[in-house]
Specification:
By secondary structure, the protein is of the alpha/beta class. The chain has 3 domains: 132 residues, no CATH class; 81 residues, Rossmann fold, CATH 3.40.50.20; 203 residues, no CATH class. The chain is built from 16 helices and 10 strands. Helix 1 packs across helix 2, helix 1 packs antiparallel against helix 4 and helix 6 runs parallel beside helix 7.
């Protein structure tokens, strides 16, 4: 099957889901809401509302991975589209409040979510079968420069066995033509380049492109630094300008206004939960409710970050700074609950209002831990070009126990692409991962040793 036919099959399956969900909403709209709005719509007005719902679902489904047929499992698609339907329904309910000019009946939208979920479950099973037929398992050859890079590449392939199979691992040769000869003999569907320096990497990349071999690249730190460069023409030649801080004044001002607005609204909404949490912590062991700790934000400025205390009062009585680990006996029963649902982070709203933190940005690190990281990763200091955040790229797309170097890459990817759209994308993506247990797991001893 040709690449064009395969892509056509996948696009058809995506369009089918969009159509089914849109029809589902249209039925709900015409039967329950069309006649209830304050000013009745005519034919085109109703179509506009349905179109808005369709656009919202497409945006959220793309954001949460509901269309990622090539690398997702059935359960991944179902969960992603369930969250996409939930967010779509929530925003459409807000739109309905404006149209009806009172609180409309929410039950029809709950029905939309349930029927949409049923459609999504059926579609996910069929879509995965179609994908498996249209896109066979890809044979991947890993070409690496160092052992850690090789291990990371192997980890990625082994995590997605239904889509990739490892056909070989080759250390890049000093004479890159030897490596190209190995690619020619092995004939993989895809090549993954891990930790390869730019000169041999470009040679390998050129060969693969000429021979229609897909290339996956594990980027180096330098790739992220160049990613934010501005392209200009000087003396009729292309030049890349790399600046230390790519943020525009308009973006910085707009982000600060958003942070203040979010902080005030968050304080109002979170207040009942914060009061209950404070009472639970106090009743459990009579210890302090709030735990404060020195952290680093933009330009290495030190500030106090505030959290609800989730560990014993004597958690660091030896004076040694350490991250939480799996099955950490320092975490109290109350702490396990509030950490699982991220309630322990709520007091950081005050850090956002004070200007020490932003809603989106690299998570603030402790000075002593940052110093340890910088001894083996000098580039770690580059993440301090941005203000620390409540949530961030590494928190959404990584895990708590993701290795420090990989988190650094994610943070630098965010810093190089900062924009209002990127911030909104991360905020909405955070909703999907809030209840995933693996996001709150502590680091293992093995991960900590690899990171340091």
């Amino acid at each position: 099957m040709s690449r064009h036919i395969r892509n056509l099959c996948l696009h058809f399956m995506k369009a089918l889901l969009i159509l089914l969900v849109t029809v589902d909403f249209a039925v709900i709209w015409y039967n329950f809401y069309a006649e209830a709005i304050y000013l009745k719509f005519h034919f085109y007005g109703n179509l506009v509302v349905i179109f808005v719902e369709m656009v919202l679902f497409v945006i959220f489904a793309r954001l949460y991975g509901g269309f990622r047929l090539r690398i997702s499992r059935v359960a991944d698609l179902i969960y992603s589209n369930a969250v996409a339907l939930l967010m779509t329904g929530f925003i459409m309910y807000c739109v309905l409040i404006l149209l009806v000019r009172q609180l409309p009946d929410i039950l029809p939208l709950l029905l939309f979510w349930l029927t949409g979920l049923a459609v999504s479950i059926l579609w996910s099973y069929i879509a995965i079968k179609v994908t498996q037929f249209a896109v066979p398992i890809q044979k991947v050859l890993i070409i690496y420069d160092n052992e850690q890079a090789r291990a990371n590449g192997q980890y990625i392939i082994e995590k997605i066995p239904w889509r990739y199979t490892l056909t070989g691992q080759e250390h890049v040769a000093e004479d890159v033509q030897e490596t190209i000869g190995k690619i020619r003999r092995i004939s993989p569907n895809q090549v993954m380049l891990c930790g390869i320096h730019s000169t041999p990497r470009n040679t390998i990349l050129k060969y693969c492109m000429e021979n229609h071999i897909t290339v996956m690249i594990r980027p180096n730190i330098g790739d992220f630094l160049v990613n934010s460069a501005k392209e200009v023409q000087l003396a009729n030649l292309p030049v890349l300008f790399c600046e230390g801080n790519p943020q525009s004044d308009f973006y910085v001002l707009g982000k600060r206004i958003f942070d203040i607005t979010f902080g005030i609204i968050g304080l109002v909404i979170f207040s009942p939960f914060m009061i209950l949490t404070a009472a639970a912590i106090k009743l459990y062991d009579r210890g302090p409710i709030i735990y404060k700790q020195v952290r680093l934000t933009q330009n290495r400025k030190e500030f106090y970050v505030y959290k609800f205390r989730s560990m014993r009062v004597d958690a660091e009585k030896d004076g040694i700074a350490r991250l939480a680990s799996k099955n950490d006996d320092r975490i109290t029963p109350v702490g396990k609950v509030i950490r699982a649902v991220h309630i322990d982070e709520m007091p950081q709203v005050f850090c956002i209002l004070s200007g020490n933190m932003s809603v989106v940005g690299p998570r603030p690190e402790r000075p002593e831990i940052a110093e340890q990281y910088e001894k083996v990763m000098p580039e770690f200091a580059l993440r301090l070009r941005a203000k620390a955040g409540l949530t961030g790229y590494a928190q959404v797309y990584g895990k708590y126990n993701t290795e420090p170097y990989d988190k650094l890459q994610m943070d630098l990817m965010y810093i190089s692409q900062q924009s209002f759209v990127m911030d909104l994308k991360i905020i909405f993506a955070t909703i999907k991962i809030l209840l995933l247990r693996e996001r709150t797991e502590g680091i293992s001893a093995e991960t900590e040793m690899r990171g340091l």
